[in-house]
């Protein structure tokens, strides 16, 4: 495991001077921090498999702190889908105003998520959102706290290992290949803009509704019948329709304008957070399902295909077919029983 904590600063797309200034201020300050290695890469979401920035990230060992212009949940699962795995590192950095907001109420019992696939390395990945503050100090303070946390955890594990160490057996073997090194200008090679879904496997229950709904071949299943984004670059730019039909809000489009779809915590697409005024004829908020169908039809027509409306790939509840009732069904039944 690496003795230093790697801090990766992911640049914002575009050339916004205020964002560049914040990135440069943080990077310059961290260059002098003990126990830290600092690297800068382009926007995480745009890094393709052949980009040097992506290959650099794949070769990292040890704990990692990522500062990006994405929600922390989105950044973590984006890294996971790219094979950069680890345990989710809890941070204490909260955007202004978060302390005043009420915690969202839990509705019913959540279905079990399938969780990440493969072996998870013995390290933590911390993700910080550069949109939370417009000055470097809060980020520098949190990086220092995380570095100290990682050092303490590493020291405790070393002590435990030493206490239970078996006799040392010296073996001769082949030297391991050193990690590939990249020059800073290689890491910052321009990356083309991309658009594709990211699956949060801490929420995904493998219901496959996204696979049924998407008609562009984006989704598939792996050898274990787990949902994956199989052909992510076939996704239609700006279309988040599959995210709207996901019952667990497990599908993230990190750069979408809505926090619920972009990976924000506590935000909802529409699911069980019901505006009761809509049930009684008030309100004018768009139905997430109707929006999803409209978005999908628009892209089908743009592809020269016929629109399908609500005839293909809708969740069981919306098609009226028999299926186990969830909390929304129970709420509607309760309202019916009251004669309202």
Automatic annotation (TrEMBL):
InterPro entries: 4Fe4S_Fe-S-bd, Fe-S_Ferredoxin. It comes from the Bacteria. Residues 195-224, 226-256 form the 4Fe-4S ferredoxin-type domain. The lineage of its organism: Bacteria, Pseudomonadati, Planctomycetota, Planctomycetia, Gemmatales. This is Ferredoxin family protein. GO terms for molecular function: 4 iron, 4 sulfur cluster binding; metal ion binding. Residues 89-119 are annotated as: Disordered. PROSITE patterns: 4FE4S_FER_2. PANTHER family: ADENYLYLSULFATE REDUCTASE, BETA SUBUNIT, FERREDOXIN III. Keywords: 4Fe-4S, Iron, Iron-sulfur, Metal-binding.
């Amino acid at each position: 495991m690496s003795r230093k904590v790697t801090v990766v600063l992911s640049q914002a797309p575009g050339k916004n001077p205020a964002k560049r200034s914040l990135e440069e201020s943080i990077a310059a300050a961290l260059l002098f921090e003990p126990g830290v290695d600092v690297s800068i890469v382009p926007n995480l979401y745009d890094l393709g498999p052949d980009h040097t920035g992506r290959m650099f990230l794949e070769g990292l060992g040890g704990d990692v702190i990522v500062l990006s212009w994405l929600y922390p949940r989105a950044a973590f699962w984006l890294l996971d889908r790219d094979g950069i795995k680890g345990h989710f590192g809890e941070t204490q950095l909260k955007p202004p105003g978060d302390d005043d907001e009420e915690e969202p109420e839990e509705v019913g019992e959540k279905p079990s998520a399938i969780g990440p696939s493969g072996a998870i390395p013995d390290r933590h990945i911390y993700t910080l959102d550069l949109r939370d503050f417009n000055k470097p100090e809060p980020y520098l303070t949190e990086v220092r706290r995380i570095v100290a946390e990682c050092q303490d955890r590493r020291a405790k594990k070393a002590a435990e290992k030493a206490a239970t160490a078996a006799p040392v057996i010296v073996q001769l073997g082949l030297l391991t290949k050193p990690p590939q090194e990249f020059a800073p200008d290689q890491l910052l090679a321009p990356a083309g803009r991309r658009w594709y879904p990211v699956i949060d496997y801490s929420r995904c229950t493998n219901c496959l509704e996204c696979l049924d709904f998407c008609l562009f071949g984006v989704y598939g299943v792996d050898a274990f019948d787990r949902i994956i984004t199989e052909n992510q670059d076939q996704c239609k730019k700006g279309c988040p329709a599959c995210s709207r039909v996901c019952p667990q809000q497990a599908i993230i489009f990190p750069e979408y304008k809505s926090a619920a779809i972009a990976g924000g915590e506590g935000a909802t697409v529409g699911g069980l957070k019901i505006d009761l005024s809509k049930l009684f004829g008030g309100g004018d908020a768009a139905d997430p399902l109707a929006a999803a169908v409209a978005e999908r039809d628009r892209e089908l027509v743009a592809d020269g295909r016929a629109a399908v409306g609500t005839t293909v790939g809708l969740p069981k509840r919306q098609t009226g077919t028999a299926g186990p009732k969830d909390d929304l069904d129970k709420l509607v039944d309760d309202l019916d029983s009251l004669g309202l």
